[in-house]
Amino acid sequence: MDQPGKTQIIDPKRNIVVSRRSFFGALLCVGAAGMGAILAVPVLRYILYPLYAKSTKDTWSPIGDAVAFSNLSQPILAPLDLKQVDGWREIDSSQTVYVTKDPQGQLGVLSSICPHMGCTIAWHQNQSEFYCPCHGSIFKPDGTHVSGPSPRGLDPLPHKIEDGKLLVKFQYFRENVTNQEVLS
Amino acid sequence: MAATDPAAESPDPKERSRFYRWFNERTGIRNIMRASLDEPIPGGARLAYIFGSGLLFIFISQVITGLCLALYYVPSVESAHTSVAYITKQVAAGQFLRSLHYYGSSAMIIVLLLHFLQTFIYGSFKGRRELLWIAGAFLSLLVLGMGFTGYLLPWDQSAYFATAVGTNIVGEVPFIGQWLTDMLRGGNTLGTLTLSRFYFAHVSYTRPNRTFHRGSHCAVPQGRRSRTH
């Protein structure tokens, strides 16, 4: 059954006999392993696709007329409609953001999701600060972290003014990390 | 230690590795490999003998790509076509894997026919191998069944009407034809119940196919050959 073929290459130092049969056996093994490895690449890419796919559409959602925010004295909670991608489904969902205005008169948009554990931040008018009802994190009106367990300040969102409308690109960020990290 | 070890003098380089010996003592891998790869073929190896192994490899490919497709596919009237489109247009390598599965199913039928022809022309069904032939015929029905049920799953026009025709043909069976058609369709009409039935059948045929194949088509000839030749 396992008799060596006619040709034999013998390595006298290591006492290895290579028969034609064992050579082809090794060739078969290496070839099959190589082909298997190559075919595993598309399978892995396919299986891991949702980890890298975008779940929000890269679109700008309108918040309202920019003029309406021009005499803003304190941050205001604004509702927002956005499209979310769930596999092949596209869902209309709504979110809220805070529109702020700095002393120079520049509008800013902050996510209302607490960077700590994801609760919705409240604006406390009397204390003039953002307050998280879940774990008591406190933020300044511009979003910087004052106290509490949150590892960073409130997340600013990309925004622009086009045709007199304030537009925002809503994004989700990884919670409980020091650096702002966009989730797809 | 190496001097006293009998395996150290073995001509097979694999036998000399300590891991191979450890593994072999626990699994008997050496005998498995010899039985499956070093089996002597009377009259020598021929290209004509490759169709059985060819079928096996295509089948393994169908199982792997099929598992991948099942990861995203949803068998319902609302979602079947959309999820298949999602697989081909969105998911990374989805088009490639679905094509492998799609063309693999045709390859399966073609190689199955060649396997049948080879066995028939060479007379390999003779010599106390009648049961092996019958087992093969049963397996081929399962393959055709998987092809038929799988064809409906994308839920496009050709899938719908091919299944409409296919289930109508079953209706021509005397006496129980209508009952068989309704049973296949899960009701009077082709719809979401047909789809989930066909999906169930398509996925669950895999098990008997594999088990039956291993039992009747791989193990039996191994025993037979050692005695008949």
Name the features.
heterodimer, A: 184 residues, alpha+beta, four-stranded antiparallel β-sheet, three-stranded antiparallel β-sheet, B: mainly alpha, 0% strand, globular
What is the fold's blueprint, element by element?
The complex is a heterodimer of chains A (184) and B (229).
Chain A: E1 8-11, E2 16-19, H1 20-47, H2 49-52, E3 61-65, E4 76-86, E5 89-101, E6 107-111, E7 122-124, E8 129-131, E9 138-139, E10 145-147, E11 159-162, E12 165-168, E13 172-173, E14 182-183
Antiparallel strand pairs in A: 1-2, 3-12, 4-5, 5-6, 7-8, 8-9, 9-10, 11-12, 13-14
Chain B: H1 13-16, H2 18-27, H3 29-37, H4 50-70, H5 80-89, H6 94-121, H7 130-152, H8 157-170, H9 177-185, H10 192-204, H11 206-228
Helix pairs in contact in B: 4-6, 5-6, 6-7, 7-8, 7-10, 7-11, 8-9
Write up what this structure looks like.
The complex is a heterodimer of chains A (184) and B (229). The model of chain A has no long low-confidence stretch (mean pLDDT 85). Chain A has helices at 20-47, 49-52, and strands at residues 8-11, 16-19, 61-65, 76-86, 89-101, 107-111, 122-124, 129-131, 138-139, 145-147, 159-162, 165-168, 172-173, 182-183. In chain A, 16% of the residues are buried. In chain A, strands 7-8-9-10 form a four-stranded antiparallel sheet, with no helix packed on it. Chain A is built from two helices and 14 strands. With 184 residues, chain A is α+β, with helices and mostly antiparallel strands. In chain A, strand 9 and strand 10 (145-147) form a beta hairpin. Chain B has 229 residues and is mainly α. Helices cover 72% and strands 0% of the residues of chain B. Chain B has eleven helices and no strands. Chain B has helices at 13-16, 18-27, 29-37, 50-70, 80-89, 94-121, 130-152, 157-170, 177-185, 192-204, 206-228. Chain B is globular and about 60 Å long. The relative contact order of chain B is 0.09. Classes of the chains: A alpha+beta (184), B mainly alpha (229).
